Predict the structure of Ribonuclease H1 N-terminal domain-containing protein.
Amino acid sequence: MARARFQSIYKAAQANGSPHHFPLLVSPPAQPVKVIERVARHSMSDYSFSSIVDTIVWNLSTDIIFFAFYFLLVVLSARVIIWLLFRLFALLRSCLVYVLVSLRFMARNDLDSSEDQPEMMMRVNSMRVTAGFVPPGPWSPDRIVVREPPAGFVPRKWYSVTRGRYPGVYYSSAWADMQTNGCPGNHKEGFKLREEAEDNYKAALRGGQVQVDGTFWRPGALSNRVQFEDQGRSSAVQGASVPSVIPKEPRDHIIVEPDESFEGDDSTQGAWEQLDQGISEADLSAYIDAAEVEQARR
């Protein structure tokens, strides 16, 4: 009875096209292998080739999208962290340079010296600290800065800065870079000898190639009478004639840069250079008076 009842129910389910939905609560039919094959074929017919491809494409696309999102997140985070580390490193390096240079100046007692000595300047701009060289007074073509090396130091090169913040002759590339870095149209040139650097600067001055803060200085009356201070000895340009009488206007006269051992202003130093060449006391006094008036006017 049970077998007959099962076969009748199974035939009804087979007529409806879904024999696999029939619950096998009793013994299987006489041909169970064929039933399993038909159930398997019917189950696979629900998944066509296009549906399988769609499923694979959807899974891959979602994986790619999520991977790209996490990748960009990690890369952007790394770039921000690296940028912050570089900025912090630059800040620490600039602070260290400023401290070292300041300690060097303090050791040489340059911060407590006369007004003619260089001073240190710190400028904070966009997390950047820079140490700069502030020359004594405004630049003028008749007053050439020759940055002297420390005692016992033999420079490997001398640098002629003809285009920069404060043109002159410097004993190291660090001092020359302070005058050229960030200045439009900057130009410096290195020489083995100091005399070569001075001659290069004189030639640029005579030819109107000296540029101060992006502005060319046009050569005038002083272009052929520039002198350098050289450890107490002034070397004049070839063909220059030293006037026998000190002129009344200091701008028409030669003023040399004093060395570190000299205590006094530039006008007195320049006058004593001329006094050694036979200038009278009266002319010297008149020159000093005129120099003081000119300095007060500036």
Notes: Residues 128 and 284 are 48 Å apart (CA to CA). The first strand starts at residue 119 and ends at 124.
